[in-house]
Specification:
With 566 residues, this protein is an alpha/beta fold. The chain folds into 3 domains: 10-87 and 520-556, Urease, subunit C, domain 1; 93-218, Diaminopimelate Epimerase, Chain A, domain 1 (Roll), CATH 3.10.310; 233-506, Metal-dependent hydrolases (TIM Barrel, Alpha-Beta Barrel). The protein is globular.
Amino acid sequence: MIRLPLPGAACLITLGALACTTSDNPTADLIAFNGRIHTVDDSIPNATALVVSGGRVLYVGDSAGAMAFRTDETQLADLQGNTVIPGMVDAHAHLAGLGAALRNVDLVGTASYEEVIARVVERARGVPAGTWIIGRGWDQNDWPDTRFPTHAELSRAVPDHPVVLTRVDGHATLVNAAAIREANLTNGTADPSGGRIERLPDGSLSGVLVDRAMGLVGRAIPPTSAEELRASVLAAVAEANRWGLIGVHDAGVGRRVIDVYEALAAEGRYDLRNYVMISSDDSTLAHYFARGPQSALHDGRLWIRAIKISADGALGSRGAALHAPYSDEPSHSGLLLVPPERVKDVAVRALQNGFQLNVHAIGDRGNTVVLDAFEQALAEVPTQDHRFRVEHAQILTPDDIPRFAQLRVIPSMQASHQTSDMYWAERRVGPERIRGAYAWRALLNTGVVIPNGSDFPVEQVNPLISFHAAVTRQDAKNWPDGGWYPEQTMTREEALKSMTIWPAHAAFQDSLMGALSPGKYADFVVLDRDIMSVPDTAILGTRVLATYLGGRAVYQDSVWAGPANP
């Protein structure tokens, strides 16, 4: 069935393809032709050309049909046989966190604690004593000793700078003695609710703070200046565009950062479609509830109509809340970061104010608690099209898998988490619970959709890493042979939808984006190979040649000629 275009559009059939326009005399601003186009539109699944007018797709079909819209002012882009897909969207990311990661000490991929310390020492040499040194990305599971580090070696190596190093998942922090002093922490400091202070056998602080305990030091870090924040946001947007992203769902953003987004968008400097999930503290909720849901602000750059809560921690730092203890730490079952009643309360208020609620839940107990809270809230405020989401939905009990479809809750998952965690995840939860881990196929078979993402800067920005993981369940070295629990893979068609039309559905953006359909935003990516047909082993070698937002190039590779006037 052919879907109707936007109101007021005119349609015609040209050479077997559907062309729709939003005026009686349509003309083309840009014609991209001679390509292999995957539209993610079932009515026109494949094409060789598309026409852009006023930032929207005017026509999708063959090159001869596209040239019918050409004028003297039309720009032409010869795709030279390259592949085009709709602009990709990361359905769970942290844009300001990426900006900070680009500015701070990068610890991703460190193979030992010694390497972490060496990178910090290098940064310390270039800044005055007393300057806070911030870093992110360490993962003790990648080191010879997979236990949490302790601060002693770091404190000896960097005694004159407070150091705060966040674990790759963002749910644990390693701090040195100088940072401990600046935060006024002592051996008698109690664990906060929803957090854990790791301690040595003698009861002294180890230097690792888990989940809400991280805030004990975080509150002592000097705030980023307004100009630094603007610069880091712009750097993050450019980095996203470089990898073919035209949109993100930005999880847990405070008012100060949202204000920067709005200012940059109003200035025409924000080359991204950001579906913002506001942080869930009461003052932030009160402000945005009073303002009401906001959609497609500043020419479709910002949506402010969703809320983010974190119900539990992460699996790697053993903060994910489990029904039974961790298999590799029998005395511990993880952390609930907020009471279940809080999730239900915010869900009720979200429904009453027209907002979506998206809740981080990784452990099986965390997921059960969130689904229970959603069910209770929906019973109190029945709402047919709420599109509530569970962010991550990483470890699920068999009984909870069908509840997503029953409650119309969307599991927002990150395929690259599976390929990062598969080396050690089974040690955390054992051979039975692992069957409900990263269970994409089991969920898809119930009829839900799965918007895909990276959780950057937890994972790398490149969305094709998650595409590859979704269809292979293998890492970049194509390990393990045949895939890790391969019965849970997606098809390539599903994986492409998981980065395009399914995020659009999960963000109430179906009518505007997610497919190269007439009337929708002309957001598309040019790739140097066809990810829908190349061998699995060739997917990660794909190069983004250009990223277009509203028909305008926001990133062009050095080998991409781009459009030209006729």
